[in-house]
Design a protein that fits this description.
single chain, 480 residues, alpha+beta, Lipocalin, Rossmann fold, 3 domains, 9-stranded antiparallel sheet, 8-stranded mixed sheet, 19 strands, 31% helix
Length: 480
């Protein structure tokens, strides 16, 4: 069995927000020159396999530069902090994610048997030379020239005391335009909501701007070119960022101030109603897999659904659910992080004892445990756990569209769409559409199972069905 709330070492590779930009280097004559190119291997982590790619090149000083790719996680060009090559032993460190590859180059310079270390664990891997670099096909990603104008913009969050940066796309024609502000999902996201090689908001912004709408997408606070602190912020704080974007567009000479609204994906679908509930001048709200129930309910539902899809047995799912409920109860009863952390550690230790005889059970290392407790006691998690979207949804009176994919395992459609519609009816909003889209996952890709492990493998970024529905609804309810 496994703990669903544990992030495996493989997933740590996705922590791109913490990456440092140092380029690793090494020098050692002939062997160094022979190593240039692309190398790949496969990590076996429990029942999963994960490709790791090492790209080796040289600079003007003829020193080695190394970057990593994790194609199965959509991570490319991961910078490294240190490269050492001595006596054919290659060591490459990626300090930003706490990862390290060490391997001995064989005599024929065509393979490097070694190991990948991360999160206190070590995994054997053999890196083999590839003929060409691994690439990901993303056919929907728009390429220049674009039939619209693109502006790089900055705007202040007065409440937070910092500036946010983003991209505003505007139709080529003159006049004033209806505008959509895109709000990203959870985790540190850039303006394109870039995830697993997909640039969801780039595709969405391109589509809507071609239809004649202005679109503003911005980097989360502390991400990309935006200032501010991400790790201490909550959903309520992010709402002030979205409201700052709204205030910015209200003053823009090419934006129709009476036709500005929000399109929020996932957590962005929680933030949009928060702003709209206190701003009567918000013209419309679109939720893409937005929550209708509390974070606690969503976490319990998604954990069970994802585990079941990945083949977890019912007994393990129930055990993990019980542990999660106990941990959430600790957080709700103990506002002091130190006290809550102590109790969480006791719960996890007791869970370890009960499963120690299970050969498939992998208890956390001390480093993983510390990271888990820090995540659970973070301001964002505490807020998300208990924040009730219905409070805000019931106060939104503008035209409203809520869509979910039928295969969404992260924000399950049945429970959330029902709660959203109930809240809208309770608040007296008669101008709404709530719709479940067949065969689409949390990212609105056409999927088979809906499992997050499929996201990176699917070439489609957003289903044309979802794009068409959003575009048509905006045309009918807002106009351009």
């Amino acid at each position: 069995m496994k703990r669903n709330y544990i992030k495996t070492p493989a997933i740590l590779i996705l922590a791109v927000a913490m990456l440092i930009s140092l380029a690793g280097r090494a020098q050692e004559g002939k062997t160094m020159k022979m190593l240039k190119g692309t190398w790949s291997g496969t990590l076996k982590i429990q029942s999963k396999q994960l490709r790791l790619v090492m790209n080796i090149s040289s600079d003007e000083a003829d020193s080695l530069n190394v970057t990593f790719d994790s194609p199965d996680q959509g991570v490319m060009d991961l910078p490294t902090s240190k490269v050492v090559l001595a006596d054919n032993l290659l060591t490459v460190e990626a300090h930003g994610i706490g990862g390290e590859f060490t391997g001995k180059v064989n005599k024929t310079n065509d393979s490097i048997p070694g190991s990948w270390k991360q999160g206190g664990m070590s995994f054997p891997i053999v890196m083999v030379r590839e003929g060409k670099r691994v690439t990901m096909n993303r056919p929907q990603e728009p390429k220049p020239p674009f039939p619209y104008r693109i502006e790089e913009v900055t705007f202040p969050n007065v409440a937070g005391g910092f500036e946010l940066s983003g991209t505003l796309t505007l139709p080529e024609k003159t006049g004033t335009f209806a505008a959509a502000i895109l709000i990203t999902g959870s985790g540190p996201q850039n303006r394109d909501e870039e995830l697993l090689g997909h640039k969801t908001f780039l595709v969405l912004a391109d589509y809507l701007t071609r239809l004649g709408f202005a679109v503003l997408r911005y980097d989360d606070r502390g991400v990309g070119k935006s200032k501010g602190e991400f790790k201490t912020a909550t959903s309520l704080d992010f709402a002030t960022d979205a409201e700052a974007a709204f205030s910015f567009l209200k003053k823009h000479t090419e934006i129709d101030s009476a036709k500005i609204g929000f399109i929020g994906h996932s957590e962005g679908g929680l933030i949009a109603p928060i702003v709209a509930s206190r701003r009567r001048d918000v013209a419309f709200v679109v939720l893409m897999a937005g929550p209708g129930v509390t974070g606690e309910q969503i976490l319990l539902l998604q954990s069970a659904l994802i585990s079941k899809t990945e083949g977890e047995d019912e007994k393990s799912i129930k055990q993990n659910e019980k542990l999660s409920k106990e941990m959430y109860a600790v957080l709700k009863k103990n506002s002091d992080d130190t006290k809550a952390g102590q109790k969480l550690r006791l719960l996890i230790a007791d869970f370890d004892k009960k499963n120690v005889k299970d050969a498939n059970y992998h208890p956390m290392t001390e480093e993983e445990l510390n990271a888990q407790v820090a995540s659970l006691t973070s301001p964002w998690f505490r807020c998300f756990l208990t924040l009730n979207p219905e409070v805000y949804l019931s106060k939104v009176t503008c035209p409203f569209l809520a869509i979910n994919g039928s295969l969404d395992l992260q924000v399950p459609p049945k429970e959330n769409l029902e709660a959203i519609e109930k809240a809208l009816i309770f608040g007296g909003n008669s101008s709404y559409v709530v719709e479940e889209l067949p065969e689409l996952n949390h990212l609105f890709q056409t999927a088979t199972t809906g499992s997050p492990t499929e996201y990176v493998k699917i070439e489609e970024t957003i289903s044309p069905t979802a794009l068409g529905l959003i575009g048509k609804w905006l045309q009918n309810n807002v106009g351009r």
